[in-house]
């Protein structure tokens, strides 16, 4: 019997087809060069990489156990030939795209199919590693369908209703056209009899876009209530979190990182060394900003397409308020009206996370030794250099760790009405549980400081083992009527536990309560191999209640809301059980929390979310296509149509319509 | 002979154009003075199906029992005729207009560029199309919204002031949006119907209405409007209407559309809005490129890799997904054309004719956003004057064929001549519409909107062109003594 490989390598585009390198400048490492360079040393080629994904039996598509690529184009009504892999003698699939020239990669839809498949699977694998278990999609079904050329549109999104990731394509603007190697006028290339006009930008070939959309799908699977209308933070969390994962995923590719780290900085250096002057947080931030602009390809500038690349750049540019001129209070951004919009709100999260990332990276670099010029005396500080490869590796390692940390934090977040401060406490708790000693790299300390700089303090005021982490439950719970073994897998058993302990857990007895998931997991500390076994159970509560009934709970309704107006309010909690079935943490939002619900109702009323025409089937606010809707609604055009659903002069537009 | 065109600010610019001998019309124009007063208004509401066409005839009594008539045509278009109407309905309407005005129109108002308001102005090479007949009536002036002013587009590209950049970007966006609409139609043909069969019909209806000059017939209508008269007026809120000399003693107030500068938000945050409108322009340009690319390519996206299957005989595991994706795409396209449709409606001219005690309101398809400036955002004194006029409206041509969002509640509540407000209320409302073409009852967006029609019937003397028999009755005539 042939050896059963657990991992399979596939070629992908490292970042974007517009990110290229000359033969002499080829980064090396995990970035594969083309097999042949027809144009000599000055020729440029697209940076590709090989990624490892879990090996599986693939049907043509490729179609695997979690991802099905169906290459249907709804704008033209065509289906493209699916990629079909040849099995090699040793049991691996043959990757037909290793070292292939750009013309092949760009004009061959089967490569595009492989690209999305591999990146989606890689992202899924990252989540499963971080969480220590399998991760389900949010819809009924095991396979996410992916259409790499879904439509002729500058858009890409996750659709729960359609169980799919959909990637658009659009023409390259003429001013940005590039000569493609092997091409005549750069417009039409011939490759083995296949021709295509080389004027298209394919979002499915942009690494960070694929990661971003996949992250939406995965977060939706882990926290399905995060698409409920709630607060600006919750609305922005999906976008911000997906941006964080996308951005850190790029930084975990050393070949790409190496290109950006000293962009725009004047200090000397060469292909082997980087000047120390370029390696403080400020300098790194500057080069990252420039690098993001260059690396992400101008065609996919988010301001136009809604595919948030400028948002990434803008997030990194967003200075902590104390550093502004003049300095501003820490809550400066959250008080701005524009930061109530989901994309902008999400940028705040990205800013806090990315600034923490840069600071940790710099801290690690300080501990590296110099790379002196051979034969020379020790240079003054301003002329000191570090080995470029080590700098890049450190950046990639920090990025990789932060991805894991961020994903793991999801298990420690409340399942409803998330705020960024909750996420910070979750980050700190999740990391503390697996790696109590933070002294080596100060990840948690740096994250806390970075979030605080943007006016976000951890929700938890617990000052026990470590500041900011969730407090263990301080009430006694009954365990004698529940079965430990069932508690690790059975939602009914978990519900029984919740019901038995409803008073101690602070649940509202009259509310509809449902256990959303029970997930046993096993996480490993990368530093010492320490294994942490936990079971994460998620429940939520829902109440339909009239406006005037809320008063008795101390919840204030907007003044314009009629007394008999029925609203739906949510609450819920994540129960984290230890390996003995004892509750370690109960991370919750109480359904009748007066402060939180008052804030929520005010925000939702002001932004028209209670308009019946906004709600779709099954309680899902936009009918499962929320992410497409959010992108599109930014482009209503006409004075007064800006933020159409907001109040104008205190009166809502909806009141003017004939309902 | 040079022709004049005027912007809403009244500056003259000359454009070279061939004209015919205007001496007869000049003589006619000179029989009235600025003090002449109309004694009667005859309003003809034509049955054009889903569209608008109104001919206003102002009668002026001269000495020796003679009368002078001034004819103003407001819109002439349709996207769907009644089932029982003849095929040449629009031609018959044009001929009736020609006959009624005795071959001489004085003004044409095209409230906005939607097909259901301008299709009748389309021409053909033989000179036999309805638009040829209207052009043959040699109107003195054609009035359109400021967004149609070719000079505005040219001037707006000169550096460097924010307002000019914003206007340029806005106008460019409108152009790209129409290109998008055109490509939407082309793409929609590829879509195989998903679970919602109405989706395609809605898409087709809206996309056709918004094609603008990307559709040849629409282009001929637009060209005809720009060339049929001696003067072209491009109006905006508060500007001259262009009817000042044509209709003596009739005050014609332009209540919309507002310019971008008139938007309160623009005034507050000019720099932010410059960025916003630049982004709008780029976004719609990108959308238009995607659509154009599809059509101009001709062949498949990846030659040599295209479909191995035809119609629905695709591999089994793909069929559900293909239906879903078609539905997704149709929904996306529908949203795009709805945005476009709303934007175009909101470029509608809103005209209020004030003649003595009578005030006639013709808002085209203006929606809430178009009305906002007049109702809320105009400076206080100006707003008070406008509100006083609106309160006294005696005839209201219902906006956008009685859809749910073109008769703001604020506006309807202002009308004090409603008969549900006072026993002697004499408000007349007129709707030009056709059921079953636009919107749906399921999501309460059907046109005409049931709840609005109920309120109109309760509060006014209500008339709908649907009451006209398409074959026999070409229009309803309202005669108003002034």
Can you give me a brief rundown of this structure?
The complex is a heterodimer of chains A (659) and B (482). Chain A has 659 residues and is an alpha+beta fold. Chain A has helices at residues 102-107, 109-131, 207-222, 232-251, 254-260, 281-295, 302-305, 309-317, 342-366, 388-409, 420-434, 443-453, 484-487, 491-500, 502-505, 547-550, 594-606, 626-632, and strands at 7-13, 20-22, 31-32, 44-46, 48-54, 67-69, 72-73, 78-79, 144-152, 156-159, 164-171, 188-191, 194-197, 200-202, 273-275, 385-387, 512-524, 531-546, 566-577, 583-589, 647-648, 651-652.
Note the gap between the termini of chain A: 69 Å
- Spatial strand arrangement across the major sheet of chain B: 2-1-8-7-6-5-4-3-15
Q: Can you tell me the residue ranges of chain B where pLDDT is under 50 for at least 5 consecutive residues?
A: 6-27, 156-162
Q: Counting H and I runs of at least 4 residues, what is the number of helices of chain A?
A: 18
Alpha-beta classification of chain A: alpha+beta
Quote the beta fraction of chain A.
Answer: 15-25%
Rounded radius of gyration of chain A (Å): 26 Å
Shape of chain A: globular
Oligomer: heterodimer
- What level of helicity do the residues of chain A show? 25-40%
Notes on the structure:
The complex is a heterodimer of chains A (659) and B (482). Chain A is globular, with a radius of gyration of 26 Å. In chain A, helix 4 (232-251) runs parallel beside helix 9 (342-366) and helix 8 (309-317) packs across helix 9 (342-366). Chain A contains 18 helices and 22 strands. Chain A is of the alpha+beta class and 659 residues long. The longest helix of chain A has 25 residues, at 342-366. Chain A is 33% helix and 18% strand. Chain B is an alpha/beta fold. In chain B, the strands form two sheets. A nine-stranded mixed β-sheet of chain B has the order 2-1-8-7-6-5-4-3-15. In chain B, strands 9-10-11-12-13-14 form a six-stranded mixed β-sheet, covered by helices on one side. The longest helix of chain B is centred in the middle third of the chain and has 28 residues, at 270-297. Residues 6-27 and 156-162 of chain B have low confidence and may be disordered. Chains A and B meet through strand 7, strand 8, strand 9, strand 11 and strand 13 of A and helix 6, helix 10, helix 11, helix 12 and helix 15 of B.
């Amino acid at each position: 019997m042939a050896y059963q490989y657990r991992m399979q390598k596939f070629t992908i585009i490292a970042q974007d087809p517009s990110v290229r390198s000359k033969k002499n400048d080829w980064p090396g490492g995990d970035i594969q060069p083309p097999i042949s360079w027809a144009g000599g040393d000055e020729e440029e080629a697209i940076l590709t990489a090989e990624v490892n994904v879990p090996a599986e039996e693939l049907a043509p598509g490729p179609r695997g156990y979690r991802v099905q690529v169906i290459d249907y184009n709804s704008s033209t009504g065509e289906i493209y030939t699916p990629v079909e892999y040849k099995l090699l003698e040793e049991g691996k699939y043959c990757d037909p795209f290793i070292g292939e020239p750009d013309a092949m990669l760009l004009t061959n839809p089967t490569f595009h199919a492989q690209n999305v498949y591999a990146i989606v699977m890689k992202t899924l694998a990252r989540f499963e590693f971080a969480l220590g278990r399998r991760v389900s999609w949010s819809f009924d079904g095991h396979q996410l369908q992916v259409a790499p050329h879904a439509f002729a549109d500058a858009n890409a999104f996750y659709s729960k209703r359609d169980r799919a990731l959909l990637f658009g394509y659009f023409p390259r603007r003429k001013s940005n056209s590039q000569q493609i190697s092997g091409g005549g006028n750069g417009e039409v290339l011939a490759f083995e009899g296949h021709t295509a006009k080389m004027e298209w930008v394919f979002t499915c070939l942009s690494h960070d876009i694929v990661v971003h959309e996949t992250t939406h799908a995965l977060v939706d699977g882990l926290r399905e209530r995060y698409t409920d209308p709630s607060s600006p933070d919750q609305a922005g969390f999906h976008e911000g979190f997906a941006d964080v994962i996308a951005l850190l995923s790029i930084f975990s590719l050393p070949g790409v990182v190496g290109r950006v780290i000293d962009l725009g900085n004047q200090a000397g250096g060469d292909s082997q060394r980087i000047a120390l002057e370029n390696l403080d947080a400020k300098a790194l931030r500057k080069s990252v900003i420039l690098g993001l602009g260059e690396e992400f390809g101008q065609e996919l500038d988010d301001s136009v397409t809604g595919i948030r690349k400028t948002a990434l750049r803008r997030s990194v540019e967003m200075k902590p308020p104390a550093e502004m001129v003049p300095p501003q209070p820490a809550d400066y951004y959250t008080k701005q009206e524009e930061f109530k919009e989901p994309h902008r709100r999400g940028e705040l999260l990205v800013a806090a996370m990315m600034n923490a990332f840069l600071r940790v990276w710099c801290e690690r670099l300080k501990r590296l030794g110099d790379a002196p010029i051979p034969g020379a005396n020790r240079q003054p500080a301003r002329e000191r250099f570090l080995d470029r490869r080590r700098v890049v590796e450190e950046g990639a390692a920090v990025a990789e760790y932060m991805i894991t940390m961020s994903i793991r934090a999801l298990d420690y977040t409340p399942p409803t009405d998330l705020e960024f401060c909750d996420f910070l406490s979750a980050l700190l708790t999740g990391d503390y549980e697996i790696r109590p000693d933070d002294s080596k790299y100060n990840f948690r300390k740096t994250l806390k400081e970075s979030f605080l700089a943007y006016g976000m303090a951890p929700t938890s005021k617990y000052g026990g083992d470590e500041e900011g982490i969730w407090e263990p439950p301080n009430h006694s719970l009954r365990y004698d009527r529940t079965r430990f073994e069932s508690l690790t897998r059975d939602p009914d058993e978990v519900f029984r536990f919740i019901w038995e302990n409803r008073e101690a857990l602070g649940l509202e007895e009259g509310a509809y309560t449902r256990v959303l998931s029970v997930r046993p997991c096993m996480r490993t500390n990368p530093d010492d191999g320490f294994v942490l076994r936990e079971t994460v159970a998620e429940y939520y509560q829902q109440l339909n209640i009239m406006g005037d009934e809320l008063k008795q709970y101390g919840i204030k309704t907007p003044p314009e809301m009629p007394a008999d107006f029925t609203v739906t309010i949510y609450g819920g909690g994540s129960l984290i059980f230890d390996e003995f079935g004892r509750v370690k943490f109960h991370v919750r939002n109480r359904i009748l929390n007066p402060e939180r619900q008052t804030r929520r109702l005010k925000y939702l009323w002001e932004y028209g979310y209670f308009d019946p025409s906004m709600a779709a089937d099954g309680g899902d606010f936009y009918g499962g296509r929320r992410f497409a809707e959010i992108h599109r609604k930014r482009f209503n055009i006409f004075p007064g149509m800006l933020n159409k659903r907001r109040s104008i002069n205190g009166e809502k537009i909806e009141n003017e319509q004939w309902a | 002979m040079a022709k004049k065109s005027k912007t809403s600010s009244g500056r003259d610019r000359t454009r070279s154009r061939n004209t015919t001998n205007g001496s007869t019309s000049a003589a006619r124009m000179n029989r009235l003075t600025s003090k002449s007063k109309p004694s009667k208004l005859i309003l003809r509401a034509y049955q054009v199906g889903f569209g608008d066409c109104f001919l206003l005839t102002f009668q002026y009594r001269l000495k020796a029992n003679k009368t002078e008539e001034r004819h103003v045509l407001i819109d002439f278009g349709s996207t769907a005729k009644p089932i029982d109407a003849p095929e040449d309905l629009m031609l018959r309407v044009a001929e009736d207009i020609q006959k009624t005005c005795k071959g001489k129109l004085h003004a044409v108002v095209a409230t906005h560029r939607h097909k259901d308001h301008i299709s009748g102005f389309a021409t053909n090479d033989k000179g036999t199309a309805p638009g040829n007949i209207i052009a043959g009536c040699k109107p003195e002036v054609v009035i359109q919204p400021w967004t149609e002013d070719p000079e505005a587009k040219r001037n707006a590209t000169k550096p460097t002031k924010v307002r000019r950049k914003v206007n340029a970007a806005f106008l460019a966006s409108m152009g790209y949006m129409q290109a998008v609409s055109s490509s939407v139609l082309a793409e929609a043909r590829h879509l195989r119907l998903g679970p919602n069969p109405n989706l395609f019909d809605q898409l087709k209806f809206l996309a056709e209405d918004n094609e603008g000059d990307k559709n040849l017939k629409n282009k001929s209508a637009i060209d005809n409007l720009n060339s049929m008269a001696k003067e072209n007026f491009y109006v905006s809120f508060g500007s001259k209407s262009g009817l000042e000399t044509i209709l003596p003693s009739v005050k014609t107030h332009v209540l919309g559309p507002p310019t971008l500068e008139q938007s309160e938000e623009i005034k507050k945050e000019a720099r932010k809005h410059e960025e916003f409108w630049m982004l709008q322009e780029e976004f719609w340009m990108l959308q238009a490129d995607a659509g154009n690319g599809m059509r101009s390519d001709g062949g498949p996206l990846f030659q040599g890799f295209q479909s191995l299957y035809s119609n629905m005989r695709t591999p089994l595991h793909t069929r559900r997904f293909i239906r879903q994706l078609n539905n997704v795409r149709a929904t996306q396209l529908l949203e795009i054309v709805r945005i476009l449709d709303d934007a175009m409606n909101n470029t509608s001219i809103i005209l209020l004719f004030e003649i003595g005690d009578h005030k006639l309101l013709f808002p085209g398809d203006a929606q809430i956003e178009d009305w906002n400036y007049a109702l809320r955002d105009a400076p206080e004194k100006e707003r008070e004057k406008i509100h006083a006029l609106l309160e006294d409206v005696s005839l209201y041509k219902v906006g956008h064929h009685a859809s749910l969002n073109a008769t703001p509640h604020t506006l309807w509540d202002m009308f004090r001549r409603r008969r549900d407000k006072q026993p002697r209320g004499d408000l007349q409302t007129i709707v030009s519409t056709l059921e079953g073409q636009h919107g749906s009852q399921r999501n309460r967006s059907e046109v005409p909107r049931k709840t609005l029609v109920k309120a109109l019937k309760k509060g006014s003397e209500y008339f709908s062109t649907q009451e006209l028999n398409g074959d026999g009755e070409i229009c309803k005539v309202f005669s108003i003594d002034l």
